[in-house]
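Appendix B. Chain record.
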Amino acid sequence: MSGLDFLSPVGIAEHPSGGYLVVDADLAAVFFLSPDGVPLGRFTADELLRPTGLAIDADNGNVYVADKDASHVKVYSPRGELLQTIGEPGAGQGQLNAPLHVHVGDGKLFVSDALNANVQVFAKDDGRSLGQIGRRGLYVGNLVRPKGVTTDSDGNLYIVESYYDHLLIYNQGGEFLLPIGGTGTGIGQFFLPAGIWSDERNRIFVADMFNARVVIFRYVGADA
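Structure tokens predicted for this chain:
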């Protein structure tokens, strides 16, 4: 595997063992890399159609992979065994149409559902639908092409709205709180943003794709 050439690596996460998992959409697989980046082999078998985002559950090491063309999320054990699928094709609550990115937090699985223009929320363990956040529309706070999704320590939800070049923030109940961004190259602006990630210090990292940079914010809390 040392000669592996990625075609379209679109997601990465740190494996509990200390290595890394990389999703390649065109190769339709998740690959395992050593801590120093040496490819060690496929993490998954051949059941993926077009994987995009992935997330790892810090509680048990399970791996969640958004399979865009299958319109569901596949859940794997830390050893790469397929455990279950979450979601099904459709346009209703609990249904998906081109899921792109996933995030696990507070016992929930958040899935950005690109063509249904919302974020679907599931129970991470049994896949029960818990609702959806956001809706299609023309106003700031609406969604057209949601991509990256993450949360902070207070459970606020951050959604990258790539079409309108915004980072949208919602509370746990799905109420829209704040937009950040708009099209541009200045500080706090975006040009086709995609992925997002948050760390234990409540820093929010946004992949600002066409500006070729990562923009970093920090949530300081409601009492600050």
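Further analysis of this model is presented in Appendix C.
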